[in-house]
């Protein structure tokens, strides 16, 4: 399964929703290797991963340092309320090649739309950004990193994913990272 949940200011919902949908549809040619002959109706695209679920919800913003709904970098005229879009691709059972493809597909949304719509990913889903982008969406990140370093000087609570996403370079050696 490939899944992301992206938070962004509610004022961007219509444009973000349209662009995400159009981008997802434009990926159909890349899905051809996963096409199946088991087509239920003529309108079915015939892809094993035709089960794409899109969900949306609304969340009040907060002031937590690295929350996906922190209001720290919202400009003038933004309400502080956020919308989310969650895309989930369900691949055929145990088709790991297709699963990795779905995750790669999902990882392309942040580079394409992240800065344009002030998108912040959910921490427990496809997380495809680096320390540079993290500083953009979490203006208080340095404060959080200082607390993290004080509380975890030996990088016991940092994993590769978090180190790369937040640019925690001091933990590279402990984690065996090269990036």
TrEMBL record:
The keyword Oxidoreductase applies. Keywords: Oxidoreductase. GO terms for cellular component: membrane. It holds the Pfam family ALO. GO terms for molecular function: D-arabinono-1,4-lactone oxidase activity. Residues 92-161 form the D-arabinono-1,4-lactone oxidase C-terminal domain. This is D-arabinono-1,4-lactone oxidase C-terminal domain-containing protein. The lineage of its organism: Eukaryota, Fungi, Dikarya, Ascomycota, Pezizomycotina.
């Amino acid at each position: 399964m490939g899944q992301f949940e992206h938070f962004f200011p509610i004022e961007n919902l219509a444009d973000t929703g349209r662009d995400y949908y159009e981008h997802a549809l434009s990926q159909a040619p890349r899905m051809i290797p996963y096409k199946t002959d088991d087509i239920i109706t003529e309108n079915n695209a015939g892809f094993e991963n035709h089960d794409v679920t899109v969900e949306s919800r609304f969340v009040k913003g907060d002031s937590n340092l690295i929350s996906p709904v922190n209001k720290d970098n919202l400009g003038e005229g933004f309400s502080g309320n956020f919308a989310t879009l969650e895309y989930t691709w369900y691949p055929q059972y145990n088709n790991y090649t297709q699963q990795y493809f779905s995750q790669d597909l999902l990882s392309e949304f942040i580079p394409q739309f992240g800065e344009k719509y002030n998108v912040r990913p959910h921490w427990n889903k496809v997380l495809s950004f680096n320390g540079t982008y993290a500083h953009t969406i979490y203006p208080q990140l340095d404060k959080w990193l200082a607390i993290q370093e004080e509380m975890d000087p030996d990088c016991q609570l940092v994993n590769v994913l978090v180190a790369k996403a937040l640019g925690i370079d001091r933990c590279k050696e402990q984690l065996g990272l090269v990036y």
